[in-house]
Amino acid sequence: MEPLNNICPIAERRYEDVPIDKVKVINSRNRDQEQFDMNVESIEGVGLMKPIRVNDKFLEPNGKYELICGEGRLLAHKQLGKTHVLAEVVTCTRKDALLQSLIENIARTKPGSMDFARELKRLHDEGWDFKRIAKVACKTEDYIRNYIRLVEQGEERLIHGVETGVFPIKFAIQVSATEDSQMQNILMDAFDHGIVTTNNFGQARRIISARAKHTKRATVDKTYTVNQLVSDIAETTKVKTSYVREAKSKENRFMTLLSGINTLFKDEAFVAIVRAAKLDKQPVLSGDFQFEPIVNEGGQS
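Below the sequence we write its predicted structure tokens.
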């Protein structure tokens, strides 16, 4: 296929009115009926604004142009009873035609949707690496990798949830990264109950994984429920709160001790005693903690 930045000038492109019954669709995709009806109305009212694109490489042996881009516009012309449609005619291999079609679909598909993810996956199946797809889609390589993984590893319920607006696609991508189908279902149930969001997803997944490890199982037990997850989250929060409280208590005791030691080392008589015993060397403290300078004779630090 031609390099991505090799754009054919308008003046060098071929445009023809081709018979609709001689155009063969080779890469069909689902379309939104409401949007299609609007396109039909637009074409009927103001005409075709963008020609379809067809491949004439196999016209002579097969008697058909092969459609590359513009299935919706082609179907709209059929519905309006038209016999011909304006087309940009190119000559290329079927593989190049398919890739052009996939790229066109990506450009016309709403980002952040399952249709968009499927088109990315189809390009990847055609041998494109993540870097090249990212360049076409104007996204990062990680973005492309995550969306393709959603199509490859997502449960049917998860994908359906994205398509029906139940799950945001960001949440779906997070879930699809989890290979355990039982864990995926628990996380989806927890999302339905408002327990798990994209913000606390990582914590919930760690808690479920910890439960599986505790029971010495490779995967989550099928009897594990959302109610148990709620209980585990509450217990984890309780332990964390207890840990923070204990850490704060120990820090306060340490600060009291440090303050007391600093006060002692301001006393000349005490300093003289510890120096005589060669115990005046203070240890080096880590972090932001430090001893105040030891006073010398005459009260100087």
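The chain has four domains: 1-108, 111-153, 165-256, 265-301.
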